[in-house]
Write a structure and sequence with these properties.
By secondary structure, this protein is mainly α. The protein is built from five helices and no strands. Helix 1 runs parallel beside helix 4 and helix 4 crosses helix 5. The chain starts with about 30 loop residues before the first helix and ends with a helix.
Length: about 120
């Protein structure tokens, strides 16, 4: 008799819905390649991400001056979608992640420079 561990079973009640591409949202325009690349990396996660993008999120991203930090934020969000079954992309969660990046920005920069 084998001992089986770490089994996860997910269940749901799927419904069919008619949906289309979220054309009502303007995508952000970045000057830095890093931010543009991070944006496209994020939206490749598909409808889990694109269905949650709102004008508030786009406005928040466009208001930030440090586009390298915006790129880090977008990659962080992408990792959340990769590592969790359900992620809510909203203004509050975006602001919380942004504040965390700002708080530890200096620490990460020092660590990266010392690794070189």
């Amino acid at each position: 008799m084998q001992n089986v561990k770490n089994i996860r079973i997910y269940a749901g009640n799927p419904r069919t819905a008619n949906v289309g591409w979220n054309t009502g949202i303007q995508w952000p325009q970045f000057k830095a390649f890093e931010a543009t690349y991070a944006w496209y990396c994020l939206i490749t996660r598909g409808f889990k991400v694109t269905d949650q993008i709102s004008a508030d999120i786009i406005d928040f991203l466009q208001e930030q001056e440090d586009e390298v930090l915006v790129a880090r934020l977008l990659h962080t969000i992408g990792e959340e979608f990769d590592n969790n079954c359900v992620v809510t992309l909203g203004s509050k969660s975006l602001q919380r992640e942004w504040e965390m990046l700002l708080r530890y920005r200096g620490v990460n920069d020092v660590c990266q420079k010392s690794a070189i």
